[in-house]
Amino acid sequence: MTHIDYYFATISPYAYLAGARLEEVAQKHGASVTYKPFDIVSIFGRTGGTPPKDRHPSRLEYRAQELQRYSKKLGLPFNLKPAHWPTNMAPSSYAIIAAQKAGGGDLAGLVQALLRACWAEEKDIAQDEVIRTCLADAGFDPSLADSGLLVGAETYARNLEEAVEAGVFGSPFYVLPDGTRFWGQDRLDDLDLHLAGAL
Predict the structure, then answer these.
(1) Which is deepest, 1, 92, 130, 157, by most CB within 10 Å?
(2) What percent of the chain has pLDDT over 70?
(3) Residue 3: is its pLDDT beyond 80?
(4) Cβ contacts of residue 140 below 8 Å, gap of 6+?
């Protein structure tokens, strides 16, 4: 059985657009997934990237077109300029880390709920009540929003270091044990083909 390390940021529009497709690919090939939320802003500075706020207008305009095209293509509701973006990624990331450690709920559902809250539901995923609701709806104890703070902070920082070491420079990023990497929700079909031995 193979394994996929899934590096992503909870404020990444492209991670939101990935929807449940990673989980579908993983299930198809019997692969396990470790969710590794990390600080996307920090990784830009360490890997030669540029945060959206500092990009040239032509790049931002193309990004806007691309995001709207993909949301329509995938049938996902999408707000190009959500009310609470950017926001502090740490609290939602800590909750995902704590939920993954605790087990017993729908981790993929939690991740997708937090991303959807940001990009389609005009909610601030840095707020405790939003995180608690997402945890509860995914079958987790909402108190993980509090109890997982310490281990969440440590793992969140470690995820960033591991991301840099693994060659990650954006979100979403899918890394296999042999170092094979796929960047972007639009590369999930390639991940599927690779796991099938066709690519």
Answers:
(1) 92
(2) 100
(3) yes
(4) 99, 102, 104, 105, 110
Give the pLDDT confidence of 51-86 residue by residue, as tens digits: 988 999 999 999 999 999 999 999 999 999 999 999
Contacts of 182 (CB under 8 A, 6+ apart): 173, 174, 188, 190, 191, 194
Contacts of 61 (CB under 8 A, 6+ apart): none
**Contact (Cβ atoms closer than 8 angstroms) between residue 108 and residue 23:** yes
Structure tokens that stand for 16 in this block: 């939101």
Domains and their CATH numbers in the chain:
3-195 (3.40.30.10)
The span from the CA of 148 to the CA of 144, in Å, is: 5
The pTM of this model reads 0.96
DSSP 121-146: S---TTSHHHHHHHHHHTTS-TTHHH
